[in-house]
Amino acid sequence: MLIDRLAIDALSRECRRGFMRGRDSHSVRIVMVAESFLPQINGVANTARHVTDRLLAHGHQLLIIAAGPGPDTYQGVRVIRARSFGIPGYKEFPVGLPDPAIERAMADFKPDLVHLASPFIIGAYGLRSARRLGLPTVAIFQTDLAAFARQYPWFAKADRGITAWIRRVHSRADRTLAPSSASVAQLVQAGVPRVHTWGRGVNLDLFDPANRDEAWRREISPDGKPIVGYVGRLAAEKKVKRLAELDGLDCRLVIVGDGPDRASLEHTLPDATFLGMRRGTDLASIFAGLDVFVHTGEHETFCQTIQEAQASGVATVGPAAGGPLDLIRPGVNGLLFEPGRPGSLRQAVAQMLDDPARRQAMAEAGQRRVQTRTWPAVVDDLVNKHYAEVLQEAATRGSQARTSWSRRAA
């Protein structure tokens, strides 16, 4: 037993050293099963891409299994595309279907670990395959599907079933990583074991106050009024219609994004400027050009756009619920509003507009907060801590199983 324990400790140290040495390290083989991946643009796909980029930069070997159509390679990595279908209101978010080819591909690749990006359907099938193959698993919880379902009449009654399914899936993973303290508490309350916190990074090379474009600001606000903006999907769960509370405030409202609610929002918010979907440097310039960023959705497990606004040097207002609770310290780097109290959002934005000096101080504090939250730093934490610990735990279980078998044989 002592020899087994020493061997396990040595393996753990080697795993950690190997991860941290980067290109010179032992190459770890990882299968990523993603409910969404490029060319889709959403939080799940973006996170999966950043994780992939960093793993490749450190010389690890990957196989990606993803839902929906798209290229069959990414940065030289093979991408297996599972069959999928679209759902009403979310047709651009394909839902993958189970396929025996997933397990065959995993077995052929011979991975050390399986990374499940927001597992639901093909992720659940990937988890089942990993368990059958005896592979350790790390599951990333990213989307509160049960809360989203309640916003749509045709899914409203499915929220309990979705919660039960998420509990079932994540309970079978070796480790679940949730992006905020609120989502960790939600999963623990639902009965999911082995939940840890793992946040999200932000691209500081892209989102920067230096991208502020005064010509764009004059175009949006010729009279020099402060610009308040929202960036995100225009859908029921984002509660964008709540921006109607800002009517009458001395500001210009900008809406960036697209989705099924755009037409109704244009009717509800006739004075707002709708810019549609924007990406890359164009989006970064818009972020930096805002005076106040507002996020209205109360079901965010993290809320990446708040981090992007903070990196852009913009004061932020978000709901006192979910992921924003970890990102905004009220009165320090932004303000929170009460989702259940009418007028609370208007009051928070009005405070920002009425005190430019305080608003600027909060913007600077928000920018300082994200300086250590780069994607490389966040993914390195995933690898050096969570992957390494799960691999160590798997080695321990293997050693215990061998010892038990030896005792029975004796």
Automatic annotation (TrEMBL):
KW Transferase (keyword) present: yes
Domain Glycosyl transferase family: 217-368
Keywords on record: Glycosyltransferase, Transferase
Residue stretches making up the Glycosyltransferase subfamily 4-like N-terminal domain: 41-205
Keyword Transferase listed: yes
PANTHER family in the cross-refs: SULFOQUINOVOSYL TRANSFERASE SQD2
Name the record gives this protein: Glycosyltransferase family 1 protein
